[in-house]
């Protein structure tokens, strides 16, 4: 099995390395999909249903077809539209404004159907059936009677009513593509988490061979799970371009982003947890529902983090369909909800059992990594002095408190990734792989790993990613990009280096196997005086370009990570404002290839988690069936004022190899915050978002603070 | 956004003439931070925009015997950063500084801030032909109304979104209005209107009329003021509740001789808290007196299904604004 080079031999890996593409991004030199402009390019736009549920009785495209600026019109052939924002038709015209004008000329006759846009309404007796399969599909586990019996026999039982709302991805770059056909060949720039997956999707969709499709995503502005499939918007762009015989750009608006390209499902759970006199968890009881929009899919893993004895878990969960856009994977799908519910109920049980929640976790959490992490985090946040033994006992007015949350995730690597290394006679090295950088920094990681494995400065290396002309790599999901790509880079660079050594060994009069390269110097291990500078060595290639493609190898990556977070908040009990003051995040993810981009991931995840917990709310109107806030004014993302001091502690385990970090730090954020709010105020808030009105109502219910 | 034509006004007279020409529906354009959003969402689609920024001289801040005079095109950033405004009318600088984000304040003007349209999410969507858009119903009544008004509503239930308006009203400012027939001055208290009077506009301006300036009386001896805004999200957001407090205190600085208190975020127009003003006048300003006074504010509030929280919140913000204006530490 392969092994990483010893860390002390690496100049870049496990260090803070600024982003390779940082300057290009901040100067605008980096071209995103939306920046692409091609000669003769048209602008595509989609006509969407203004109704939550309706039959399309008739659609008259003639008005749009006659518009002089319109070069292509597309009927989506829908008989039924099933949510506000569902696609109905599309046009391509010579400017975005004219495309919009043309959409107005399409006349659609709808026959309105009853709709439901909340879980409650969808599950109510007599609710209109919005899908053939029914509105609800059930998922069950365990024996209710038996679990209730265990609870009845437990020393302590707590109950909580938890609500996690739907969250939309809100990628700063919207979904979209620029499509160009040359004969039967499709070239498409698309904002995606998987260039190769898109190639396959397009090939399947248009029934052409994969080699006829070239997908490009040099830079992208976030996906968070919502940008795997080419999506209706990608298909439409390519179809319009085909019809028009001209390139078409189709980028979605913020409103479309909110309605139609995915979201994190809701999770509403009634939980009961029992504990014995020693503070050990005895049982977990769960009745819950959630909605993933029209597809219904809304699961989350339970029991979570903590050990619940065999046979002591009962679950009845409803996956609920509503007339709203379908869910898509979203940064650690399911886990943030599992953690939010679990972190709260465990905090409650600890209190009931009269045990400090930190000790309670140490008692019940079977994970060895987290056992260590809890202690590190507690020390950093100052648990002993900052945790209010009596919740809400701090000063009046603005109250402070601390809380804990925990999470886990898989990560790992996919064997299919291949990397090409080209060493040019002038010393330059180009490393190419068809992965894509969602903003996590994989371009930089490719760059630094290649430099370290070859033993040369990063300035000699050019990383190339984001295109299907480069060797195959997997989609970026499940936090597997680093675990897939860096082992392949490592392996391909080692192979290339061996080949280079073979070329230069005769000149040094040693065996290739006796050579090494460090700091840009190739030398004989036994006799350092026998050496060549990198560029002297590559010059020996004599016009030939050394070109190696090699793949992922076992031993350099693994999977399974743990983490915990401690939050300190301040709650203004008169206004209901929750202000996160500080987060301490302790996270393992094996070998931290780049400590700077790693901290950046964790910072970002904490901001995103706070945003979900405190302010984001997809507000559905049951009367009209619409989302009333499909914009970034009233769908409120955290801004600078919500961001606390964040202390990241990387629980470094280089011996485990690379694992991946994109998702896990998102998991514990909201639970830690909720527990901190309780510790500050003595009032349990178990529903998100914890906006001022929610907090004020909760405080009022408890008779003020 | 629908197609429109664009006209650079040369002077005020030209502007009102063009705006008053009813052949093409024309709307004034200042910074554009509000109206462009309206046009993009396609429920406002003027045939012509009349650019006011091409008119010279409307962007001046001056101090005279009458007090502070602000041209309609003065940018919010300039109000927030003006040293003399910060000293004489700290509440006004605070109000301007609380608007949106730095980018918005760099572009947004005072006139535009006072004349901006409501943020009601039904109003802002082309799908909802509500009363304010001359349609038949108010969607907020039976729909989602967490950000709507708790007093002064019906048949429309917006809140007035401006941050400068409550403070200017508390300071006793007046606006200068230019129409085809000439110009007139109106005190702030009479500038805004409630939906019961007309639910399709938020102020007395007739089509074609413009605000040209705002004048704030010179500060009297013993005057103190403060603007406080509570946002659901600490970063850029409109007010859930805000308060402009302008006090006249005695020489000792402890007794309130006169109180002018105006709430934002609770009503379709800036809402003068008359009951609280009366209760505070003549009182020694301490926590107890202020708490007593603010309890009387919004006594007639009629919250909707999702916004009862605003009543208490607005009282808290008013309390804090008064205490801060008076310089009372609690
Ligand atoms: C994301 C966002 C956040 C915002 N946050 C806030 C906030 O927190 N607080 C706040 O108060 N506002 C806020 N605003 C609203 C707005 O940006 C500001 O109020 C700004 O001051 C408007 O000024 P403007 O010059 O850009 O107006 P414009 O958009 O040019 O005009 C606004 C309206 O007033 C009319 N108008 C402009 N000038 C005149 C005049 N002199 N006479 C008559 N009519 C005129 C226009 O026809 C238009 O209807 C926000 C806006 C956005 C987009
Ligand atoms: S509150 Fe006013 S603007 Fe909003 S929906 Fe009702 S009538 Fe329209």
Automatic annotation (TrEMBL), chain A:
The keyword Membrane belongs to this UniProt entry's keyword annotation: no
Biased composition regions of type Gly residues, renumbered to the chain: 402-411
InterPro entries: Ald_Oxase/Xan_DH_a/b (IPR000674), Ald_Oxase/Xan_DH_a/b_sf (IPR036856), Ald_Oxase/xanthine_DH-like (IPR016208), AldOxase/xan_DH_MoCoBD1 (IPR008274), AldOxase/xan_DH_MoCoBD2 (IPR046867), AldOxase/xan_DH_Mopterin-bd_sf (IPR037165)
Gene Ontology MF term list: iron ion binding; oxidoreductase activity
Pfam families: Ald_Xan_dh_C, MoCoBD_1, MoCoBD_2
SMART domains membership: Ald_Xan_dh_C
Annotated keywords: Molybdenum, Oxidoreductase
SUPFAM superfamilies, A to Z: CO dehydrogenase molybdoprotein N-domain-like (SSF54665), Molybdenum cofactor-binding domain (SSF56003)
Region (Disordered): 387-411
Highest taxon in the source lineage: Bacteria
Residue ranges constituting the Aldehyde oxidase/xanthine dehydrogenase a/b hammerhead domain according to the UniProt record: 27-114
Full protein name: Aldehyde oxidase/xanthine dehydrogenase a/b hammerhead domain-containing protein
Organism: Candidatus Glassbacteria bacterium RIFCSPLOWO2_12_FULL_58_11
Automatic annotation (TrEMBL), chain B:
Keywords, ordered alphabetically: FAD, Flavoprotein, Oxidoreductase
Superkingdom: Bacteria
InterPro entries linked: CO_DH_flav_C, CO_DH_flav_C_dom_sf, Diverse_Substr_Oxidored, FAD-bd_PCMH, FAD-bd_PCMH-like_sf, FAD-bd_PCMH_sub1, FAD-bd_PCMH_sub2, Mopterin_DH_FAD-bd
Signal peptide: none
Pfam families (alphabetical): CO_deh_flav_C, FAD_binding_5
Domain FAD-binding PCMH-type: 1-221
GO molecular function: FAD binding; oxidoreductase activity
Coiled coil, from the record: none
Keyword Transmembrane helix annotated: no
Protein name: FAD-binding PCMH-type domain-containing protein
Gene source species: Candidatus Glassbacteria bacterium RIFCSPLOWO2_12_FULL_58_11
